[in-house]
Amino acid sequence: DKIGFNNSSRLYFNYAYHFNLDNSQLSIGTALVVNRIKFEGLWNAPQTGTTGGLDPNIPNDYQTKLNFNFGFIYKAGNIDFGLSATQINQPYYEKLNFSNQRNYFGYVAYNFTLTSNLSLRTMLNVKTDQVAMAADLYTLFTLKKKYWVGLMYGIASKYTGIQVGADLKEKIRIGYSLNVNFLSTFPNTNQITHEIVFAYLLK
């Protein structure tokens, strides 16, 4: 991710364990995240004859820290819900005078069987960084339990998006999503974001 002077790269190591209960399932998961953050206060001078350079008030350095995530999902029949927290340890980057804020997420979803090969999943997702809260609505159509296409809408942020993906041979998962933000403060800046997912499933 790159936002302003902040450039962040993350490497995730995820693990989940599933408990089969009476007519339901409880999944508990955790993640170790290697997070590298770089600050570069380089700015472009206006067209007044001056030159740009590094802002002395912004550190020009990088640092790597470990983050920890944790969460659970409970499934029963056609409904499931989950709670999770990311950046639980809130690491502090001494070189950058910056820390990661803990975030909380919650969701509830319901699954509809439309035909023998087609299903629909609807979901409400709520998230907060202990300062502000946001909510998103999702609809996801799945064909033959392998291919999916979905729509997303941000209630507060007024963004909309689409995602597509596939599970190949029950081992490889690939996906792509495109989001468009209609409330971007700066025109032509950060209005469109892309995300590509590639995962190998261990069963």
The stretches of 5 or more residues where confidence is low (pLDDT under 50) are: none
Strand order of the largest sheet: 1-2-3-6-7-10-11-12-13-14-15-16
Describe the global form.
globular
Secondary-structure element order, N to C: EEEEEEEEEEEEEEEE
Distance between the termini: 30 Å
Can you give the mean pLDDT?
Answer: 86
How much helix, percentage-wise, in residues? Answer: under 10%
How much of the residues is beta strand, in percent?
over 45%
How many strand segments?
A: 16
Q: Biggest sheet: strands, sense, closure?
A: 12 strands, antiparallel
- Compute the gyration radius: what is it? 20 Å
* Helix-strand makeup class: mainly beta
Number of helices: 0
Descriptive account of the structure:
The protein is mainly beta. Helices cover 0% and strands 67% of the residues. It is built from no helices and 16 strands. The strands form three sheets. It has a twelve-stranded antiparallel β-sheet, with no helix packed on it.
Helix-strand layout with pairing:
Blueprint: E1 2-3, E2 6-21, E3 24-39, E4 42-43, E5 53-54, E6 61-76, E7 79-86, E8 92-93, E9 98-99, E10 103-113, E11 118-128, E12 133-143, E13 147-154, E14 159-168, E15 172-181, E16 192-200
Q: What structural keywords apply?
A:
two-stranded antiparallel ribbon, 203 residues
Précis, in short:
By secondary structure, the protein is an all-beta fold. The protein has no helices and 16 strands.
